[in-house]
Amino acid sequence: MIFAINEINNSTELLPGIKLGYQIYDSCASVPVAVHSAFQLLNGWDSAIDKDSSCSQSGGVVAVVGDSGSTPSISMSRIIGSFNIPLVSYFATCACLSDKQQYPTFFRTIPSDQFQADALAKLVKHFGWTWIGVVRSDTDYGNYGVASFLNAAQKVGICVEYSESFLRTDAQSKIQRVADVIRRSTALIVVAFIDSGDLPVLLDELALEPPPPRQWIISEGWITDPYLMTYSFCEGAIGFAIQKSIIPGLKEFLLDLSPTEVASSSVLTEFWEDAFNCSLKTINKTDKRLCDGNEDLKMLKNSYTDTSQLRISNMVYKAVYAIAHAIHNAVCRETVVSTKCDEDLRSDSEQIFKKLQKVYFFRNGYPVSFDANGDPVAFYELVNWQKSESGVFELVTVGYYDASLPKGQEFHVNNNISWLKGSTQVPVSVCSERCPPGTRKVLQKGKPICCYDCIPCPEGEISNTTDSPDCFPCPSELWPNAQRDACFPKPVEFLSYDEVLAIILAAFSVSGACLAIITAAIFFHHRTTPIVRANNSELSFLLLFSLTLCFLCSLTFIGAPSDWSCMLRHTAFGITFVLCISCVLGKTVVVLMAFKATLPGSNVMKWFGPPQQRMTVVFFTFVQVIICTVWLLLSPPFPMKNVSTYKEKIILECALGSAVGFWAVLGYIGLLAVFCFVLAVLARKLPDYFNEAKLITFSMLIFCAVWLTFIPAYVSSPGKLTVAVEIFAILASSFGLILCIFAPKCFIIIVQPEKNSKKYVINKK
């Protein structure tokens, strides 16, 4: 401060012809002392610990630089603000001081903690830390700073395991309790919003029983304190610091002290005696030697002579120059040639306060201005405690935070960071590991949102992002993979010719058709024999033809369903089976009526001759054709993707279109089969060597049994098995008909040809 005032007083551009004076009061980092000093300053009491002795006359106080602490600054601002005296602080960072309703005359050259809290939250979020601990000074600086930080952290999903506060004046038991919380915690990251005066008390307690490795995130209050860098368990600490600066000429000014100048100042006297371990007083009540005048400041190696880390000092430097520029703007007038200042003009504090709101200038390349809240533009350096080759901690700049940049671009960090224990790997601090794709987060009861369990997605659902809060179902035609992190097309299933079951059924189908054709060939070759001519050979050939179609129609049920195959398979099945049953029914009626015709005076057979038999077959078949036509016209079967039977696959099948049409076709077949069965039962005991009634009865019994069993099996069979059941019913009933009706006759024709003669029949009778 004194250096800046000397520069201003020697300047020909800033306040030419006007000298600034000063008085220094010690607040002792105590609110009562700070308040007392404020009253002394306002009342003009001459109790300053140091003042400018060159002032020929004293004037009213127009501005105050200070205090370094937020709490003392709050108290002082409330007092001197009533007199419109501006208070420009260089180290009071509490965000509460930006409230112009309560502190209208407060200014500062150091950024508000609101910016630092936002920067710390971005820092924690940048490295993926979601589980942290917080310790703070139980002061306005610590409490308001942590409140701002927690608010910013909550917005970006950061959880706090603990938040502890203390003061250096607290009982040792409380300090120990805070240290134990840090030792027992699971959070690896410790964010410390602590005054540099409070922190050594906590670190000393931790040093007695060092905690597990902790990554310290430090506020600007103590990140640059060289004394605190001696604690080895804080290696790798990182935090935001005030921008390092250069003040030309300051080092020379600090070293240019003579014993006479020192003796005239109580502050410098205390410093001198402590630095050189000697006494400037002639009456020495201590064991220190008398200073002999040969003490050389240039030989000292301490924080006083080290000007390589000018951070807070530059904030004081800016504060003094800001006040000087405000006074200059109040009492000086710029002309074309020079600047004229009215030395006799008495500027009051209110005038300086108004001018201070508008100052804007550069000093040593650094801009100085205040916004509407009295705050400067926030700029922080991100610094890291790194151990040098000599084994001591050094401050290394690894990034920055510039609030003047566009949103989202304020924060920048490089990779040259040394973490705890000198590691180059970013430490991990989470309450729960991240949930991989295929799982969802379920919060643990009674814990923060960062503590959760990872539950696998249920069947049919996926999550394709990390830490997904929910799983979502796949579309109806897709199904999750084994990891349940992606949906893939469901396999389409139908009774394909590539499958063993389809090959077996197709083989039986072709074999049955071949068997029917072979039987027809045998019958055609022996068409003149009695066994073929009995019961209308024309119906036998027509029955064999229809059975061939029945066997072959089952092939339409195999393969991928299409519009034409779906319509063909059901209609072909219905019509061919009706044709088949109609032929069997005709043969049964012929047998029954033949014996009725043997009665005297009966002419029944003229109504059941070959033409009538053909008309019966055509009529019954035509009825089925009409049913199928109506079905196809109104609501035909169509191919459908069945996604409800199986969740994990699609069944490609033929939808009935109209269930009424399907069951009408099937019911009509059943009605004819039952009617044929009843007639065959009535004719089964008629005495005739070639009586087919018994064979038809047995074949119809098998036919009805197969189709009665088919109904529940068809309804309950899932997927492609439904088709297989239908094919099996077709083949089983077809084989039942051909084997029961034609096998005995073929056996006689081939194995026992002697029985297939008219002579044998006559002898048998």
Task: Give a description of the structure.
- It comes from Nothobranchius furzeri (Turquoise killifish).
- Residues 501-765 form the G-protein coupled receptors family 3 profile domain.
- Belongs to the G-protein coupled receptor 3 family.
- The protein contains 21 helices and 28 strands.
- The strands form ten sheets. The protein has an eight-stranded mixed beta sheet, with helices on both faces. It has a three-stranded parallel beta sheet with strand order 3-4-5, sandwiched between helices.
- With 765 residues, the chain is an alpha/beta fold.
Task: Sum up the structure in keywords.
single chain; 765 residues; alpha/beta; 3-stranded parallel sheet; glycoprotein; receptor; GPCR_3_C; GPCR_3_9-Cys_sf; G protein-coupled receptor activity
Break the fold down into its secondary structure elements and pairings.
Layout: H1 2-9, E1 23-24, H2 31-43, E2 50-51, E3 64-65, H3 70-80, E4 87-89, E5 106-108, H4 113-126, E6 131-137, H5 140-155, E7 159-166, H6 172-184, E8 189-193, H7 199-208, E9 215-218, E10 238-242, H8 250-255, H9 259-263, H10 266-276, E11 278-279, E12 289-290, H11 312-331, E13 332-334, E14 339-341, H12 349-356, E15 360-363, E16 366-369, E17 379-387, E18 393-402, E19 411-413, E20 439-443, E21 452-456, E22 461-462, E23 472-473, E24 478-480, E25 487-489, E26 492-493, H13 500-525, H14 530-533, H15 537-553, H16 563-596, H17 610-634, E27 638-642, E28 650-655, H18 659-682, H19 693-716, H20 720-750, H21 758-764
Helix pairs in contact: 1-11, 2-3, 4-5, 6-7, 11-12, 13-15, 13-20, 15-16, 15-20, 16-17, 16-18, 17-18, 18-19, 19-20
